[in-house]
Structure to design on (503 residues):
């Protein structure tokens, strides 16, 4: 089945447009900075020393500044939640784009790693060229006098290496604590970055009017009997070191400019401050706001142990408001002082009931310690299936009217359905008669889901309409549903794919 351009534009169009804009900014900034240091007269002498290594190091540094500022925006959760839930962003596709914030964060992180490698390699070449081409006539360009940029650069590479290796999927699954604590080293990374750019190593020439690049200062020549411009041009190779002359320019020009004074240099203003100050202050303010908001007490009113290592927690918090589909961040200092985790709300507060709750699957160290703290060891294996009374849920702010809901729940073992059985039966307004799970057995399918047949069936029942696909699950299922949502069908049904994202 061919990919439908209509479905592809609905699911991927805005995302790829933003990706193209981001990529264009990176390429444009890299090329502009490269030409600035390659052809700029104020960088003539330092370019003669370092060559293309200077251009590559500065161009990669400019793109690093851009991505080091953008990478902080996707982790401003409060800001993203405000934009997603307010009418400031009227387009549904644009609001769905905010759910891609985690993907954009990873993209910027990978870009930072790649360009950091280019930046380090270019500086290694610069070190070699400087040792070969350095001249005592330009003492102000002596890079050996500045040790702070080199030391901070090495430390930043080590911190970045730790953050990248701890962010891999294998480490995050096996030991989330390593990923969490190592990832918070980004604060150290930004502090080192501030010191790295404040060393004043890179300098540009300031007196271009009185000392054009490549001119000759007669007061410093070894030949005192020079009387003609032609003679000056002929002896130019002897007057200056060979590294500071261009043979192709000498063949084109029979005259050279005479210097009125020696070249003067000053350190470039550190551009990194301008790039990252705004996003860093925004992120710090947002973290401070989240810290103040999280200090309000939360009362746990019940903890229920379900089969298949699932724990349900019901809580009450003053002035807490939420809508179905949102998630909360749980932080328990008794379990971990800094670590916190997102969980989808399975029970939302209403106008008449302030209780909200989540279901936790015990799959890691944090959830195991959290369960042991809340439940006595004697009741962890008990089977408790509470009866949940029907209640009125608040309506979501959909731009299209919800007519039908297909709920597909995939589990590895049949016991996992048991803790959710009562709620499903209540939602369907069915009474459990005889066997407790008779209502579920009629729609139970054992084996791998037949997604293609299921999508065709849904498309047939919803001809010419838009069907939203919402996925909360592993990446393998997500990729399959994403691919099927982009494919065309003969019923004129358009699928819009959405995936739960803890941004």
């Amino acid at each position: 089945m061919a990919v439908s351009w209509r479905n592809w534009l609905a699911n991927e169009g805005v995302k790829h447009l933003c990706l193209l804009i981001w990529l264009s900014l990176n390429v444009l900034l890299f090329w502009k900075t490269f030409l600035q240091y390659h052809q700029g007269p104020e960088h003539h002498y330092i370019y003669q020393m370092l060559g293309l290594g200077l251009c590559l190091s500065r161009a990669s540094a400019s793109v690093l500044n851009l991505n080091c500022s953008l990478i902080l925006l996707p982790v401003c959760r409060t800001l993203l939640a405000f934009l997603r839930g307010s009418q400031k962003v009227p387009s549904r596709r644009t609001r769905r784009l905010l759910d891609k914030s985690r993907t954009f964060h990873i993209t910027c992180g990978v870009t930072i790693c790649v360009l950091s490698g280019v930046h380090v390699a270019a500086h290694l070449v610069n070190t070699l060229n400087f040792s070969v081409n350095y001249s005592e006539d330009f003492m102000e360009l002596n890079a050996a006098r500045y040790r702070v940029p080199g030391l901070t650069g090495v430390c930043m590479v080590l911190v970045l290496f730790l953050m990248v290796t701890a962010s891999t999927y294998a480490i995050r699954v096996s030991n989330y604590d390593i990923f969490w604590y190592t990832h918070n080293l980004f604060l150290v990374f930004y502090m080192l970055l501030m010191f790295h750019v404040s060393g004043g190593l890179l300098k540009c020439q300031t007196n271009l009017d009185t000392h054009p690049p490549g001119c000759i200062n007669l007061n410093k020549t070894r030949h005192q009997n020079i009387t003609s411009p032609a003679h000056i041009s002929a002896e130019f190779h002897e007057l200056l070191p060979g590294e500071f002359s261009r043979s192709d320019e000498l063949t084109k020009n029979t005259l050279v400019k005479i210097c009125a004074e020696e070249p003067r240099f000053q350190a470039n203003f550190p551009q990194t401050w301008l790039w990252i100050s705004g996003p860093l202050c925004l992120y710090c303010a947002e973290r401070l706001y989240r810290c103040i908001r999280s200090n309000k007490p939360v009362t746990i009113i019940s903890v229920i142990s379900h089969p298949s290592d699932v724990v349900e927690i019901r809580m009450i918090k003053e002035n807490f408001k939420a809508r179905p589909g949102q998630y909360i961040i749980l932080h328990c200092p008794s379990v971990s002082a800094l670590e916190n985790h997102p969980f989808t709300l399975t029970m939302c507060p209403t106008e008449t009931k302030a209780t909200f709750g989540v279901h936790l699957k015990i799959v890691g160290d944090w959830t195991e310690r959290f369960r042991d703290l809340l439940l006595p060891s004697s009741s962890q294996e008990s089977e408790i299936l509470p009866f949940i009374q029907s209640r009125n849920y608040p309506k979501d702010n959909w731009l299209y009217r919800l007519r039908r809901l297909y709920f597909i729940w995939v589990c590895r073992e049949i016991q996992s359905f048991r803790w959710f059985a009562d709620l499903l039966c209540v939602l369907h307004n069915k009474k459990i008669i005889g066997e407790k799970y008779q209502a579920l057995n009629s729609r139970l399918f054992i084996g791998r889901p037949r997604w293609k047949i299921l999508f065709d069936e849904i498309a047939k029942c919803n001809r010419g309409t838009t069907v939203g696909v919402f996925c909360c699950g592993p990446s393998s299922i997500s990729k399959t549903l994403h691919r099927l949502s982009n494919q065309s069908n003969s019923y004129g049904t358009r699928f819009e794919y959405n995936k739960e994202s803890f941004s």
In short: The two ends are 33 Å apart (CA to CA). The mean pLDDT is 78. The chain has 19 helices and nine strands. Residues 207-263 form one domain.
